[in-house]
Amino acid sequence: MKFLGIYRPGVPEGTPPSQEVMENMGKLIDEMTKSGVLLATEGCLPSSFGARVRYKNGRFTVTDGPFTEAKEIIGGFALFKADSKEDAIEWTKKFLLVAGDGESEVRQVAEF
User: Fold this and answer.
1) pLDDT tens track for 14-39
2) What domains can you pick out in the chain, each with its CATH number?
3) Can the peptide bond before residue 9 be classed as cis, meaning omega within 30 degrees of 0?
4) Are 102 and 10 in contact, with CB atoms under 8 Å apart?
5) Model's pTM, two decimal places?
6) pLDDT at residue 13, as a whole number
7) CA-closest candidate to residue 71, choices 5, 21, 4, 12
8) Residue 37: what are its φ and ψ, rounded to 5°?
9) Which of 69, 75, 72, 109 is nearest to 95 (CA)?
10) Distance, CA of 23 to CA of 67 (rounded, Å)
11) Secondary structure of the chain in the HEC alphabet?
């Protein structure tokens, strides 16, 4: 099964990770890659570089960043394979132990 982990950091947007966090994240990414779990992962630039595109009633609305609601800011994502939702949650816990305060939403990817 494939899962998408969507990370929302618990620190102000644009706060860079420490050298220790970067090193530990590199080790975790290496572990997940070698075990065949990790398919893709990336961090996101600050929302000031982004835009939100909405479609409603036949009209598009585009709102340029930055976005002020911190709980909605996505800091990064990971696409990974796991045998179950429980396994995906365990990998996500390992990630959060390295990343620090924040939350990750884990969503199973529909595979047809």
Assistant:
1) 889 999 999 999 999 999 999 999 99
2) 2-108 (3.30.70.1060)
3) no
4) yes
5) 0.87
6) 87
7) 12
8) -80, -45
9) 75
10) 29
11) CEEEEEEEECCCCCCCCCHHHHHHHHHHHHHHHHCCCEEEEEECCCHHHCEEEEEECCEEEEEECCCCCHHHCCCEEEEEECCCHHHHHHHHHHHHHHHCCEEEEEEECCCC
Exposed, middle or buried, 81 (CB in 10 Å: 0-12/13-18/19+)? middle
Q: Which amino acid is at 23?
A: E
The predicted-structure confidence for 60-104, as pLDDT tens digits, reads as follows: 999 998 987 767 789 999 999 999 999 999 999 999 999 999 999
Q: What would the two tokens of residue 100 be?
A: 């620090």
Tokens of residue 31, six digits? 């572990």
Two tokens, residue 63:
């709102």
Where do we find the tokens 């990370």? 7
Show the CA angle centred on residue 107, arms to residues 109 and 85, nearest 5°.
95
